[in-house]
Amino acid sequence: MDRIAVFPGSFDPITIGHLDIIERAVPLFDKIIVAIGTNSSKKYMFSEEQRKKFIEQSVAKFSNVEVDVYEGLTVDYCIEKNAQFILRGLRNPADFEFEKAIAHTNRAITKKDIETIFLLTSSGKAYISSSIVRDVMRNGGNYTILVPDAVRI
């Protein structure tokens, strides 16, 4: 059985921190699905199509990474895609506490064995988040060091 991981997020936009997690996870899984979750009540800076394009261009060099969009619960999407793993990046202790609660909830609400795998962000990237990138962009700052080339618009 293939080891399939879903890396869910809004990726608004993808950052070098996200890309770091993907790059380091590539050898661990047969397939990684970078899954853009949609939330109709959330206002995004970039459209779903833009976010998907940014990610596709950023991961094009990896043959085992694909990009998709989904709605609803991540565990339901994992079941649909036959994924056994949810991949998450951790920047700090607050991320861990938040992600741990989600992982426990996911295990409680599904009958399938879907394991959450945490990777720590690489040193020097732990401060980067999509919300910080958006704030820098809105205020005309130099965001290019925080995002992959595809997002440098």
From TrEMBL:
Give me the Gene Ontology terms describing cellular component.
Answer: cytoplasm
Which coarse location class applies to the principal site listed for this UniProt protein?
cytoplasm
Q: Where is the Cytidyltransferase-like domain?
A: 6-135
One GO MF term on file is: pantetheine-phosphate adenylyltransferase activity
Q: Where in the cell is it found?
A: Cytoplasm
User: Which key words tag this protein in UniProt?
Assistant: ATP-binding, Coenzyme A biosynthesis, Cytoplasm, Magnesium, Nucleotide-binding, Nucleotidyltransferase, Transferase
Choose any GO biological process term that the UniProt entry carries and state it: coenzyme A biosynthetic process
Sites binding ATP sit at: 10-11, 18, 89-91, 99, 125-131
Q: Which InterPro entries match?
A: Cyt_trans-like, PPAT, Rossmann-like_a/b/a_fold
Q: Enumerate the residues binding substrate.
A: 10, 42, 74, 88
Q: Which reaction is recorded as catalysed by this protein?
A: (R)-4'-phosphopantetheine + ATP + H(+) = 3'-dephospho-CoA + diphosphate
Pathway in which the depicted protein is active: Cofactor biosynthesis; coenzyme A biosynthesis; CoA from (R)-pantothenate: step 4/5
Site described as Transition state stabilizer, located at: 18
Q: So which cofactors does this thing need?
A: Mg(2+)
Q: What is its EC number?
A: 2.7.7.3
* Function description: Reversibly transfers an adenylyl group from ATP to 4'-phosphopantetheine, yielding dephospho-CoA (dPCoA) and pyrophosphate.
Subunit info here reads: Homohexamer.
Q: Which PANTHER family match?
A: PHOSPHOPANTETHEINE ADENYLYLTRANSFERASE
Q: Which NCBIfam families match?
A: coaD_prev_kdtB, cyt_tran_rel
Family, similarity comment: Belongs to the bacterial CoaD family.
What is the protein name given in its UniProt record? Phosphopantetheine adenylyltransferase
Q: What organism does the UniProt record list as the source? A: Algoriella xinjiangensis
